[in-house]
Each structure stands twice: as C-alpha cells, then as structure tokens.
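Exercise: predict the fold of this chain.
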Amino acid sequence: MSDSTWPFSDPENVALFTVVNLAFGYAPILRVTHDEEDGGWQFHSGDPIPDASEWKLVLLKNVAKLDPTIKELAALPFGWEATRSASGEKWITKRQVP
C-alpha cells in the first residue's frame, strides 16, 4: 500500500490490539470502534470478547490487508462504531452509546 492510497489519517504502522482469531484471519471483522478518548481503533468479531491472553498487538495496515473493506471506515469519527452482520455485508455506522 502506498501512502497515496492509504485512506486513514493514522499511519499504516499505528499499533492496535485485536483478538487472535481476527489477527490471523480466522474470523471476520463484524464490529469496528474508533475510541472517543484516544482515537484508538478496535476490531471485533461476533464472538464474546476473550480475556487478555487472547489479544494480539497488530498494525493497522495488516488489519487492512486481512479485510480491505475496513478502509471504507477510515473517516469514522471518534466515538463512533460500525457493524455488519457478516463478512461482505454493508457497514452500518452509528455513534457509540456511552
């Protein structure tokens, strides 16, 4: 990915935590949040959130390689989330409920 096609305001090498099953492409990304407090990104599947031992530090560019549709969410404002019912479905965005 070249900088000219990178849609996020965050750099490609920004680090974030996600669950192991997403990091290795074993489960689809069905929920994305853009944190109000720090602008951090979170990527979740439909599975219950596991304990800390199941989390992995990854780069945003690697998540985008696993699922290029997350680039559609690059302008998601802080404090908002996007969900979908299955991989390939349309993202639905809304403000997060505190």
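Check your answer against the key: Strands lie at 15-19, 31-34, 41-44, 55-59, 80-83, 92-95.
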